[in-house]
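Sporulation protein YtxC
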Amino acid sequence: MICIQFSKRREADLFYNSVVKEQELWLLKDELDYYEVTLENENKSQSTFREIVQACLQVIRARKWLGWMEGVLRHTYYYEDRREIDRILEIGREFEGEPPSGLAMPPVYRKIQSFLENYVTLHSVINFDDMCADCLEDSHRLIAEYTGFIIDEYKQEEAYQLLLDSWRFRVQNRDTGVTLLHLYQNNGLTYFHDEGNPISESETLLYMKQYPDESIKDLPLHWCITPALVLAPDQLVIYTNKPDDPHLELIRNIFEEKATWKAQSEFPFKMS
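C-alpha cells:
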C-alpha cells in the first residue's frame, strides 16, 4: 500500500485529482484528524513513482511555493511592507509562467523535484506536511537565491517607475516655450515644429542644455523618445496607424492627456 497523509483538504484534493487521472485505483479517505490518499495492493512501480512525485510537486507549487518565498522575503531579506511583498510575489508568479529571456534562474524546481524523488523512494507512508518541511530545509539556499533574482527584477521595476515619474513630471511641469510638436510615425519617429520643419539632433541638444534636469541629462540623442522628453511641448500630436507600437505606448504613458492621436493620413506636412 502507498499512503500520503494531508492536514488540509484542498491539498489532498489537488493531489488526488492529479494522480487519479492516471490510475483510478487511488482512494481519498476523510479520516478523523487528517486526509489520506492511498493506492491499495500496489508496489511502487516506476510509473506510480513518477505520478506521486509530479503530484507532490504540483501541490507544492500551487499551495506552498509563494508562502516559502514570502518567508524568505521576511526572514532572509527582511522585507516587511505588505505592498512590496505582494508585488515581489506577483513577479514570482509571472516568472513561473515565462521567465525573462536570457535570464538563467537558479534551478530551484529541479532541486525540489530531486528531493521529492529521494523522499518518495524511501517512504511508502508519507506525511505531506513533514515532507514539505524537510523539502524547504533542503532547498532553502536555492529558494533564497531564486527569490534574490525576483527582488532584482522588482528593484529594476521600481527604478524604472521612478524614472518614468520623473519624465512625466518634466513634460507636465517644465516650460520650455514649445507649444506644439507633431510626431509622425513611418519608418521610425520624426518630430516637427508646428511650422513643419523637422527637429534635428543639434536642436535637441541645444534644448537639453538650455532646460537641463537629471531625468534627461544622460538620454542618447538618437533615441526616438528623447526629443519629446527634452522639448517637453504643451501638446504632442501623434500621427500613426500603429498606436500599439511600444515606443508610442511609452509616450502615451508619459504625456497622458497632453498627447493627441491622429491617423497618418491627417499629417499636415509634406514628407521629403
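Residues 2-146 form one domain.
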